[in-house]
Design goal:
This protein is α/β, with parallel strands linked by helices. The protein has 6 helices and 9 strands; from the N terminus they run αβββαβαβββαβαβα. It has a 5-stranded parallel β-sheet with strand order 4-3-5-8-9, with helices on both faces. α2 links the parallel β3 and β4. The protein is globular and about 35 Å long. The relative contact order is 0.16.
Length: 159
């Protein structure tokens, strides 16, 4: 991971998101929109760390603090992949995912957590998670997750 960005009076999210909104060049020279990935976690340090890695991987990042904000943002469209924490102060990520899936949302969702709990993993799978990743493994697994889950973005249905 690159060194932290200078905040200069801005919040961590404000410092990272402008970098994540750039566009890249397609192989034919046309401007290609970057895939948009949402990181949903109530811990600002985790959001900032994962957002920076996603931006470094060529993604536009939408950093959110809870499942309610995620639902609103998905309803607007344009999210290609979601990384959703399990335990947040005001929401359970697995319940949020189940609600999204029951309403027809097919955007790929990776549940991530500090808990290595087989029962929670099973619940996440039943709720429709595309993967379940332990937080300490997330940055190492990020390139493979992006490679595997982003190609489906044209098929994703939002709320």
């Amino acid at each position: 991971m690159n060194s932290p960005l200078p905040l200069q009076g801005r919040s961590v999210q404000q410092a990272i998101v402008p970098i994540a909104t750039q566009v890249g060049m397609a192989s034919d020279g046309a401007v290609a929109a970057r895939p948009t990935v949402s990181i949903v976690d109530d811990d600002p340090n985790i959001r900032a760390m994962v957002a920076e890695e996603l931006a470094d991987s060529g993604c536009e990042v939408v950093a959110l603090t809870n499942g309610h904000d995620l639902e609103k943002r998905l309803a607007e469209g344009g999210i290609d992949l979601v990384f959703l924490d399990v335990q947040m102060h005001d929401c359970d990520g697995i319940e949020c995912l189940g609600d999204l899936r029951s309403r027809g949302c097919t955007v790929p969702v990776v549940i991530f957590t500090s808990l290595n709990d087989p029962e929670r993993r099973r619940q996440a799978q039943e709720a429709g998670a595309d993967d379940y990743v332990l937080k300490h493994e997330l940055l190492d697994r990020l390139p493979a997750l992006l490679e595997r889950l982003l190609p489906r973005r044209s098929e994703n249905r939002h709320l």
